[in-house]
Amino acid sequence: MSCVLVLLETRDGQVRPTSLEALGAARDLADSSSGTVHALAVEEADLDLVALGSAGADHVHACGAEAHSADGSAATAASLARELDASVVLLAATIRGRDLLGRIAAKLDSGFAADCIEIQASDSGLECLRPVYGGKAQLRVRVTGQVAAASLRPNHFNPADRDAEALLVQASASEGSAKVLGIHAGAGDRPDVAEATIVVSGGRGLESADNWHILEDLADALPGAALGASRAVVDAGWRPHGEQVGQTGKTVSPELYFAVGISGAIQHLAGMSSSKVIVAINKDPDAPIFGHATYGIVGEASEVVPALAAEIRKVLE
Ligand SMILES: Cc1cc2nc3c(=O)[nH]c(=O)nc-3n(C[C@H](O)[C@H](O)[C@H](O)COP(=O)(O)OP(=O)(O)OC[C@H]3O[C@@H](n4cnc5c(N)ncnc54)[C@H](O)[C@@H]3O)c2cc1C
Predict the structure, then answer these.
(1) DSSP 210
(2) What is the average pLDDT across 289-305?
(3) CATH top class, domain 198-316
(4) In the predicted model, what is the mean pLDDT of residues 65-77?
């Protein structure tokens, strides 16, 4: 893999952690054949060349464009990939990444693999492992041809840890046919549920939106924790759709996932079953979620969650 290009995703001018993970994966691919890693930041962002170099980038191409449309970003990435003769293009498997991956592959006339949890170079292309059927099976995919594109599931790759500073290269962005007029952030300052290493999710078992404060308190006790929700509570209007985990919501793979008052429907499991440790809290000992949990607590959410938060605070103090 002589040249690997990583499309950086930025938010509020900051490179998102998942893009640093993609740089680490790119570094491993490039190192297997003494190749180089190029990062592309289409939108204007605070680019810390030491942090990006440490994570794996040799060169950072900065376009400094204003909030950019997906077709413009895809055209910019494809044009740079051609210019560099890149053999692999990587990006994060986020909502934005889902929008971009197919567009980039189409422009490069390449194959692609989405939502990968492992990638490696092989003699005949890029080999990827990706979960399918809601995590019930894993598919090994080989993308052959001159160039391969892949998106990487958050929390499955690590940024490199090098003593290196990336070189800045000024670049220009292709015009998109659509123009982004504004981006309105949702309220709250918690991390995105798809990227957090700890997720505290609630379901219909919480019984009312007014009871969410117990989950917020548990999340507050755990540094960096995000809030998640089942579709039932999102449909009920208790929580915003941005927090929904599952088949029609976000896919998460944190180190620690709390499922509180969530039954464990297949569509919910599709979004969280690759979490490393799953703690289920449910008053029904036969709830299906216990079949997937690392630890299960049978009890009333209103009693178990505050007690757990208090104990965690004692331990972390
Ligand atoms: C096409 C399609 C896509 C879907 N996509 C998604 C998706 O993306 N994400 C998703 O989550 N769902 C999705 N669903 C819905 C899914 O099938 C379930 O209906 C939903 O996940 C159920 O949510 P829940 O677990 O919160 O509620 P329920 O199934 O009603 O479960 C509530 C649980 O809370 C427990 N409980 C009740 N009271 C308490 C208490 N006081 N203390 C502790 N536990 C208590 C109950 O024992 C029960 O296990 C989808 C469905 C379809 C058809």
Answers:
(1) G
(2) 97
(3) alpha beta
(4) 90
